[in-house]
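Exercise 7. Predict the joint structure of the components listed below.
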Amino acid sequence: MSEEIIIKNAVKRYGDNTVIPALSAEIRNGEFFTLLGPSGCGKTTLLRMIAGFNTIEGGTISFGDQVINDVPAHQRNIGMVFQDYALFPHMTVEANVRYGLKFRDVPKAEADERVDQILKVTRIDQYRDRLPEALSGGQQQRVALARAIVIHPTVLLMDEPLSNLDAKLRIEMRTVIRDIQREIGITTVYVTHDQEEALAISDRIAVMNAGVIQQIATPVQIYSRPANTFVAGFIGHSDFFRVKCEAGRVWFNDAYSVAVPMLSEGVSGEAVAGVRPEDFCIMPPSGDAGAGLTAKVLKKVFLGRYINYQIAMDGCTPLDTLESIELSQDISTAEHEFEEGDTLTVTLRGDLINVYSAEGGASLMKGVRRGESAR
Amino acid sequence: MKVRVDFWKVITAVIFALFAVFLVAPLLSLFVSAFKDAETGGWTMSNFVSFFTKKYYYRTLFRSLAVSSCVTLAAVALGAPVAYFMATYQIRAKRLVQILIIISMLSPSFIGAYSWVLLLGRSGVVTQFFAALGLKTPSIYGFFGIVLVLALKLYPFIFMYVSGAMKKLDPSLLEASQSLGCGPARNVACMVIPLILPTVLAGALLVFMSSLADFGTPMLIGEGFRVMPVLVYREFMGEMGGNANFAAAIAVVMVSVTTSIYLTQRWIVNRLSFKSRSVRRIVPKPIEGGKSALVHAWVYLVAFLGILPQATVVYTSFLKTNGPTFVQGFSLDSYRAIFSEMGASIINTYCYGGLGICGIVVLAFLMAYLSVRRRNALTSLLDLCSIFPYVISGSVLGIMLLMAFNRPPLALSGTAAIIVISFIIRRLPHTLRSSVAILHQISKSSEEAAVSLGASPLRSFLDVTARLMLPGVMTGATLSWVAVINELSASIILYTGATKTMSVAIYSEVQSASYGTAAALATVLTGTTVLSLLILFSLSGKREVSF
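Solution:
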């Protein structure tokens, strides 16, 4: 009953304004697939095209073999969880959950059983006779989820379902969602702008920007080997430096270079290196210019487990005009602590950093594509 | 690909067809006949020329505008302070005052006119009381009387509007102004008045238009003082056969005047209005001593004067009568008389009103949905429909419908249908407005959720959206209902012997000086009005109505 979703060159236009130019993706049967991107990137638009609430101006969207472009929303057999839950305020929890079964010729005995079962799975059976307004945010979320999956939908669609919950409940509920989704094994498309949520919950993530998919990959691949500088900057934090590549080494200035084993064969000349805060190592200043980059501590902020330093790098070129970069030091492993005004030496881990083309910012690492990539 | 019949496209087409037939076409034919010669049937400007060159006619326009301006000023002067006092001070018996004000707002103005005749007329109770003391009271007939009656009838609109604005007024703004050194009196002048001004103007427009369109009051107590609706009626129904083309021309003048006033006011309000986000509300403060006495005196006096006509009517309905005069003692004779002689008009009122309300509710549901959820160039035209009650007065509507439907293919004149249609056109906007307002508060996703669960668009509308809209629609429908059963100015043109309604019956009873039966009928109307409100309040759990 669960199906894969195949999107081929899907186009969304509002009048003359093209929101999604030509988008293709394959969402595997049973996987938890997240659309992640900044607000206005088209992720909700795409989700609503799959749901049938937005028209499709070009290309096709299929559930398995069936093209669903012209199937009206109410005949697509989707389960959808809305950002504001969209519970029917005039119906009890049970009536909300039962509503979709009315349109599916389910015999009464089976409907009762399915409702009972899903209320238990989502742990809301003790609230079945209450109205939605008498429930907390987390409970309402569970009702929305139960209502969407009790109909055994072909695909489950979720539009920022956790964004109205407080931080603690958000973490609890994402685990609930993930567990239930695994248990019933349904193809799920999940929209969020919260990268931590996406990394924690997804089998695969599609990072979107301006209606275009920037990368589709597993959370680990997305974080460690971004397909381009947009993904590197959007997921986690990256500092970018102008570098020169030559024979598998990346030169940050005339004296300091690191070996980058994953750099594609034959890359040479100007490029951009993306360095995450944890790819830096800091140590007391060494006299040798080839041993690392020299930097000066501008500000130090103590955050408990971590110390954040704001440092000004000397003798290398950050990509943007920022004069300083931030890096954190885990105090449990730190050998030295630095004070404001100190000079220090920064080294970089060549196995972790990523190199992107100077023009366009596409990854120059081995095997990294917009689709799948190797670690 | 198969062709799918979209339910909402069909509804759009049906509604536009209805509007074209029952509103646009009659309006066009009214305009056309205004430019036709009554005898030759050829094109002519002579109808307008004679209106604007003969003093007898054009003076009526100025009189109408003068009356409406005075009524508006008086209504603001009466209603705005009451609303301000009720919002800022703790007033004793506040609920009662509010309910009295609502009742005086919902009763028809001609009943007010008629009971002021009983009080201040030539043989009125108050007149004779003062005459016995050798004092002369001002005459209720003519300009002064019309202004008095209409101002007391219409001030509740100002009260409702200003009360609404005071609720939205952010007390932090007043506190901020005070913290910057502004005293309490100047605070009212510098903060409160500018902040509520757009609302006051909106209320003032409603009052102005209502008094401009009012037919019953000037007809009953205007005597020689003629205003536009009376002129239109007299020219159209005139004893010497009437001149439909000339009446149409006067109607066109009226529609032009009201439209331009409406547009000007809307332009001004749009320029003055602003968004305010208030979390807190002004909490009424206790007051004491002389200030308390003055404030209470004003609030009670205005509420008392407003409800006095209703009280008089109810009281006199139980008096013994002998022809046109009241005699000593109480009796139910007037009620016996109306149920035996005028039962048909009572049944007609409830039947036509009920049918009209059904039509209004169905249309309001569908039109609100189209204009909010299926918004496009075509459906946004539906918004125009909310302008019609402002610019087309009852008399004009009556003439319009009668002229359009007095011959086949739709020969409706003299039927009940034409009265029901006039009810729907005139009173749809109350319900439509509250339906649109509540629909804006209903999240679109509830309906999408129903669709995602497999409900068809029609089914999801009925199961979810329509159900959630119900409270707002019912509030509006109650107000429409009250307005419909009290409707006079269109019905008096459209009725025939068999389709007489209660308000028409009251009017003709007053004309023939049968004050007892008129009072009994009016009491039945008032009773229905109060009962409808009580039902609404108990269903909605609220104690407020808003326009």
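Discussion. Chain B touches chain A at residues 1, 4, 443, 445-446, 448-457, 459-460, 463-464, 467-468 (CB under 8 Å).
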